[in-house]
Amino acid sequence: MKIQFWSVGKSHETYVKEGVQLFTNRISNYYPVKWSIIPMPKNATSLSEIDLKKKEGEIISGLLKKDDYLILLDESGKILSSEELAKLIQLKADESIKNIIFLIGGAFGISDVVKKRANYTWSLSKLVFPHQLVRLLLAEQIYRACSINRNEKYHHS
Question: Which pLDDT score, from 0 to 100, does residue 157 have?
Protein backbone atom coordinates (compact mmCIF):
# COMPACT_ATOMS: atom_id res chain seq x y z
CA MET A 1 0.00 0.00 0.00
CA LYS A 2 1.15 3.53 -0.74
CA ILE A 3 0.26 6.52 1.42
CA GLN A 4 -0.20 9.91 -0.15
CA PHE A 5 -0.84 13.21 1.54
CA TRP A 6 -2.58 15.82 -0.60
CA SER A 7 -2.99 19.39 0.55
CA VAL A 8 -4.55 22.31 -1.29
CA GLY A 9 -2.58 25.52 -0.94
CA LYS A 10 0.99 26.72 -0.68
CA SER A 11 4.07 24.61 -0.10
CA HIS A 12 5.15 23.79 3.45
CA GLU A 13 6.05 26.86 5.49
CA THR A 14 9.51 26.74 7.03
CA TYR A 15 8.10 26.47 10.54
CA VAL A 16 6.49 23.08 9.73
CA LYS A 17 8.68 21.82 6.91
CA GLU A 18 11.26 20.12 9.12
CA GLY A 19 8.65 18.32 11.22
CA VAL A 20 6.63 17.21 8.19
CA GLN A 21 9.79 15.86 6.58
CA LEU A 22 10.86 14.08 9.78
CA PHE A 23 7.57 12.19 10.13
CA THR A 24 7.27 11.57 6.40
CA ASN A 25 10.72 9.94 6.44
CA ARG A 26 9.69 7.81 9.41
CA ILE A 27 6.48 6.70 7.66
CA SER A 28 8.58 5.61 4.68
CA ASN A 29 9.99 2.83 6.90
CA TYR A 30 6.50 1.27 6.78
CA TYR A 31 4.95 2.38 3.48
CA PRO A 32 5.96 4.30 0.39
CA VAL A 33 4.80 7.86 1.11
CA LYS A 34 4.49 11.05 -0.89
CA TRP A 35 3.28 14.61 -0.36
CA SER A 36 1.48 16.47 -3.13
CA ILE A 37 0.72 20.13 -2.70
CA ILE A 38 -2.16 21.02 -5.00
CA PRO A 39 -1.79 24.67 -6.00
CA MET A 40 -4.77 26.94 -5.73
CA PRO A 41 -6.32 27.89 -9.08
CA LYS A 42 -4.54 30.81 -10.76
CA ASN A 43 -7.51 33.15 -10.46
CA ALA A 44 -8.36 32.10 -6.88
CA THR A 45 -8.54 35.64 -5.48
CA SER A 46 -11.20 36.64 -8.00
CA LEU A 47 -13.42 33.61 -7.30
CA SER A 48 -16.23 33.39 -4.77
CA GLU A 49 -15.86 30.81 -1.98
CA ILE A 50 -18.34 28.53 -3.77
CA ASP A 51 -16.59 28.84 -7.13
CA LEU A 52 -13.16 28.31 -5.54
CA LYS A 53 -14.32 25.12 -3.80
CA LYS A 54 -15.85 23.93 -7.07
CA LYS A 55 -12.65 24.64 -9.03
CA GLU A 56 -10.46 22.94 -6.39
CA GLY A 57 -12.89 20.00 -6.44
CA GLU A 58 -12.50 19.67 -10.20
CA ILE A 59 -8.71 19.63 -9.86
CA ILE A 60 -8.81 17.01 -7.08
CA SER A 61 -11.35 14.86 -8.94
CA GLY A 62 -9.09 14.94 -11.99
CA LEU A 63 -6.16 13.64 -9.94
CA LEU A 64 -8.01 10.79 -8.23
CA LYS A 65 -7.97 7.31 -9.69
CA LYS A 66 -10.97 5.01 -9.49
CA ASP A 67 -9.40 2.62 -6.97
CA ASP A 68 -7.80 5.27 -4.71
CA TYR A 69 -9.04 5.10 -1.14
CA LEU A 70 -9.72 8.73 -0.21
CA ILE A 71 -9.72 9.86 3.41
CA LEU A 72 -10.92 13.42 3.66
CA LEU A 73 -9.82 15.49 6.62
CA ASP A 74 -12.81 17.60 7.60
CA GLU A 75 -14.08 19.04 10.86
CA SER A 76 -17.39 17.21 10.31
CA GLY A 77 -15.64 13.83 10.11
CA LYS A 78 -15.35 11.07 12.64
CA ILE A 79 -12.92 11.65 15.49
CA LEU A 80 -10.59 8.69 15.98
CA SER A 81 -8.19 7.75 18.71
CA SER A 82 -4.64 6.94 17.62
CA GLU A 83 -5.41 3.25 18.11
CA GLU A 84 -8.56 3.50 15.94
CA LEU A 85 -6.58 5.25 13.21
CA ALA A 86 -3.98 2.48 13.37
CA LYS A 87 -6.74 -0.13 12.98
CA LEU A 88 -8.17 1.74 9.98
CA ILE A 89 -4.78 1.86 8.25
CA GLN A 90 -4.12 -1.81 9.00
CA LEU A 91 -7.57 -2.76 7.73
CA LYS A 92 -6.93 -0.97 4.42
CA ALA A 93 -3.52 -2.66 4.13
CA ASP A 94 -5.15 -6.04 4.83
CA GLU A 95 -7.76 -5.29 2.15
CA SER A 96 -4.89 -4.75 -0.32
CA ILE A 97 -5.81 -1.13 -0.97
CA LYS A 98 -3.11 0.06 -3.35
CA ASN A 99 -3.26 3.76 -2.61
CA ILE A 100 -4.61 5.58 0.41
CA ILE A 101 -4.87 9.35 0.08
CA PHE A 102 -5.29 11.72 3.01
CA LEU A 103 -6.71 14.99 1.68
CA ILE A 104 -6.49 18.38 3.37
CA GLY A 105 -8.82 20.73 1.52
CA GLY A 106 -8.53 24.40 0.77
CA ALA A 107 -9.21 27.34 3.08
CA PHE A 108 -12.96 27.16 2.49
CA GLY A 109 -13.28 23.41 2.70
CA ILE A 110 -14.01 20.76 0.10
CA SER A 111 -16.54 20.65 -2.70
CA ASP A 112 -19.57 18.42 -2.36
CA VAL A 113 -18.36 16.34 -5.31
CA VAL A 114 -15.14 15.43 -3.47
CA LYS A 115 -17.03 14.89 -0.19
CA LYS A 116 -19.26 12.37 -1.95
CA ARG A 117 -16.24 10.66 -3.52
CA ALA A 118 -14.45 10.30 -0.17
CA ASN A 119 -14.38 6.79 1.22
CA TYR A 120 -13.95 8.07 4.76
CA THR A 121 -14.16 11.46 6.45
CA TRP A 122 -11.92 12.00 9.45
CA SER A 123 -11.62 14.90 11.87
CA LEU A 124 -8.36 15.45 13.70
CA SER A 125 -10.16 17.46 16.35
CA LYS A 126 -13.17 19.63 17.06
CA LEU A 127 -10.66 22.47 17.12
CA VAL A 128 -9.79 24.31 13.92
CA PHE A 129 -6.10 24.42 12.98
CA PRO A 130 -4.18 26.28 10.28
CA HIS A 131 -3.61 24.05 7.25
CA GLN A 132 0.14 24.11 7.80
CA LEU A 133 -0.24 22.66 11.31
CA VAL A 134 -2.73 20.08 10.04
CA ARG A 135 0.00 18.80 7.72
CA LEU A 136 2.37 18.32 10.65
CA LEU A 137 -0.31 16.75 12.87
CA LEU A 138 -1.38 14.43 10.05
CA ALA A 139 2.14 13.22 9.34
CA GLU A 140 2.82 12.65 13.04
CA GLN A 141 -0.45 10.77 13.57
CA ILE A 142 0.10 8.50 10.58
CA TYR A 143 3.59 7.72 11.85
CA ARG A 144 2.12 7.04 15.31
CA ALA A 145 -0.48 4.70 13.78
CA CYS A 146 2.24 2.81 11.90
CA SER A 147 4.27 2.43 15.08
CA ILE A 148 1.19 1.18 16.95
CA ASN A 149 0.57 -1.41 14.25
CA ARG A 150 4.15 -2.64 14.63
CA ASN A 151 3.91 -2.62 18.43
CA GLU A 152 6.79 -0.17 18.71
CA LYS A 153 7.37 2.08 21.69
CA TYR A 154 6.89 5.53 20.03
CA HIS A 155 3.23 5.64 21.05
CA HIS A 156 4.13 5.40 24.73
CA SER A 157 7.61 6.89 24.81
Answer: 59
Q: What angle do CA 35, 76, 34 make, to 5 degrees?
A: 10
Confidence of residue 107 (pLDDT cuts 50, 70, 90): confident
Any bridge partners for residue 104, and if so which?
7, 73
The radius of gyration of the chain's CA atoms, rounded to the nearest angstrom, is: 15
In the chain, the domains with their CATH numbers are 2-156 (3.40.1280.10)
Q: Which amino acid is at 102?
A: F
Q: Is the pLDDT of residue 28 over 70?
A: yes
Whole-Å CA distances, 18 to 47, 73, 121: 33, 22, 27
CA angle (143, 134, 83) in 5-degree steps: 40
Closest CA to 139 of 10, 9, 31, 38: 31
Phi, psi for 133 (deg, rounded to 5): -70, -35
**pTM given for the model:** 0.95
Each residue of 135-150: b (16+ CB within 10 Å) or e? Answer: bbbbbbbbbbbbbbbe
